[in-house]
Amino acid sequence: MDLCSVSTIKYIQKTFGFKNAKSLGQNFLLDNSVITSMADAAEITGDDLVIEIGPGIGVLTYEIAKRAGRVVAVELDKSLIPVLKYTLAEYNNVEIINDDVLKVDLKKIIEEKNPEAPRNVKVLGNLPYYITTPIITDLLENGVPTESITIMMQKEVAERIVANPGSKTFGALSVAVQFYCEVERVVEVPRDSFFPAPKVDSEVLKLRVLEKPTVDVNDKERFFALVKAGFGQRRKTLSNSLLSTGIEKEKILAALKCAGIDPMRRAETLSLKEFADLSNHL
Hints:
Elements: H1 6-16, E1 28-29, H2 32-42, E2 49-53, H3 59-67, E3 70-75, H4 81-87, E4 94-98, H5 106-113, E5 121-126, H6 132-141, E6 148-154, H7 155-162, H8 172-180, E7 181-189, E8 194-195, E9 202-209, H9 220-232, H10 238-241, H11 249-258, H12 272-281
Parallel strand pairs: 2-3, 2-5, 3-4, 5-6
Antiparallel strand pairs: 1-8, 6-9, 7-9
Helix pairs in contact: 2-3, 6-8, 9-12
């Protein structure tokens, strides 16, 4: 069965009576080479437990199941559950959970499914554009024990994640992901690779989760509060934008001086190391 074929997708739609839910960002991939690239980048082995987010009709799941020891696919749309059981019928190593991934306790699932080797876990998925950022930040901030997160997302979001200090796309999301991960660009996916075609292009990134963050911070909550404040008012200088944290301006200026940072600079020009130094001095 070629799940990347428009005719197959239309057959499944007719057979199971479901329609693409625009509200859930359902666009089905037609390019098998992208699926292979994602699975290859994730370096899936028979010892791995793979958590897949948003399997859809099972295009990526089918490839993952060939390679992984176990697969847990979390799908929000209940109308796709019988479809997945049909398309993945030949595999007995796949479990489908009908739920919202932002409400599922992935740490508990991993502990139950893979208690002896918690680091042999990989996350993959073709994320709905409207909740890409919440899903990524939720995985990282909650410390889901995974080696890597290989995901497809809107190209614009991917560019924000890989952005460097000084660029217009560098922001709080860039800092958050680069704090926890080593980022690798896998493959660009044009909009005509999907059915129906979305209005934007996509890209696959691999986020290799580090055992310890990129920079050392004394207080992670303070670090991210500064990042949020700095980028919350991008056009303001640091000495002014950081006032929203509730810290007195004199203390902000003193910490900036100790960190060797010009108070007239803006957040987008700071490296992760500079944000960490500022946070630690405060």
